[in-house]
């Protein structure tokens, strides 16, 4: 989730500079075919509903890597929450604005949201990052988690979803494009999240079979967390 124009600043915050504009371009090209390839997101909806049930009406929620806004941002907005979504893909942000007019969306890198970064959105009561941090190499994921933690109010909630895989920045074919992804075995994922300052309140998993011809079955991991301290 890094842009060329932010790579130098990221280097000053412990992240090696890297051009990942190709990742954004891939999702620009994929557009709404993403939702066609990944329908029936029952696990993601269940994790979103768990977040909604734990929040008061009007709570501020950040959707990190919001994609088309469906289903997470839409579900959160329909529940009466104040939703802000960010995504590196301009096409995804445009689709999200069309599909979830009750939320606000920004084309931004997660690094833009860090404390002192160029996009100051204030504090949030909760955040969701469903299958967005897997776009980072493992070396960058702990820092990304730390930035999310710093955006949360004390004891703020965090819902995370990743694909269970022992992979680090591996190129894979994806809906006619090539993207790079990372994953963890479940115990390792929990350790990384706890190391970034979160308490894991609950975890679950679900098998998932995408509709895309080049997308193999996946095991989805969901962690329900709270900011520690």
Low-confidence stretches: 1-13
**Kindly state the mean pLDDT as a whole number?**
87
- What's the assembly state of these chains? single chain
Strand order of the largest sheet: 3-2-1-4-5-9-8
Determine Rg (CA atoms, Å).
16 Å
Distance from first to last alpha carbon = 27 Å
Biggest beta-sheet profile: 7 strands, mixed
Tell me the β content.
25-35%
Number of strands: 9
Order of helices and strands: HHHHEHEHEEHEEEHEE
Percent helix: 25-40%
Number of helices: 8
Global outline: globular
Structural class: alpha/beta
Description of the structure:
- The protein is 31% helix and 31% strand.
- The chain is an alpha/beta fold.
- The chain has a seven-stranded mixed sheet, sandwiched between helices. A two-stranded antiparallel sheet has the order 6-7.
- β4, α7 and β5 form a beta-alpha-beta unit.
- It is globular, with a radius of gyration of 16 Å.
Considering the chains and any ligands shown, give keywords for the structure.
229 residues; alpha/beta; seven-stranded mixed beta sheet; two-stranded antiparallel ribbon; 9 strands; 31% helix; globular; disordered N terminus
What is the structure about, briefly put?
With 229 residues, this protein is of the alpha/beta class. It has helices at 7-11, 21-30, 33-37, 42-53, 72-78, 90-99, 141-151, 186-195; strands at 60-64, 82-87, 104-107, 124-130, 152-163, 167-174, 177-183, 198-208, 218-227.
């Amino acid at each position: 989730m890094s842009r060329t124009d932010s790579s130098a600043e990221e280097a000053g915050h412990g992240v090696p500079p890297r051009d990942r504009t190709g990742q954004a371009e891939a999702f620009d090209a994929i557009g709404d075919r993403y939702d066609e390839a990944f329908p029936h997101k029952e696990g993601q909806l269940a994790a979103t509903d768990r977040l909604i049930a734990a929040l008061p009406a009007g709570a501020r929620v950040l959707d990190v890597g919001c994609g088309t806004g469906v289903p997470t941002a839409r579900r959160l907005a329909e529940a009466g929450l104040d939703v802000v979504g960010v995504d590196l893909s301009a096409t995804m942000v445009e689709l999200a604005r069309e599909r979830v007019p009750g939320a606000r969306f920004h084309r931004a890198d997660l690094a833009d949201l860090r404390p002192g970064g160029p996009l100051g959105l204030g504090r949030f009561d909760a955040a969701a990052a469903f299958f967005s941090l897997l776009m980072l190499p493992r070396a960058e994921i702990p820092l990304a988690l730390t930035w999310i933690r710093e955006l949360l109010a004390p004891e703020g909630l965090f819902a995370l979803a990743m694909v269970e895989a022992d992979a680090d920045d591996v190129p894979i074919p994806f809906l006619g494009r090539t993207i790079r992804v990372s994953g963890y075995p479940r115990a390792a994922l929990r350790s990384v999240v706890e190391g970034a300052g979160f308490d894991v309140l609950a975890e679950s998993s679900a098998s998932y079979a995408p509709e895309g011809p080049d997308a193999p079955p996946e095991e989805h991991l969901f962690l329900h967390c709270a900011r520690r301290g």
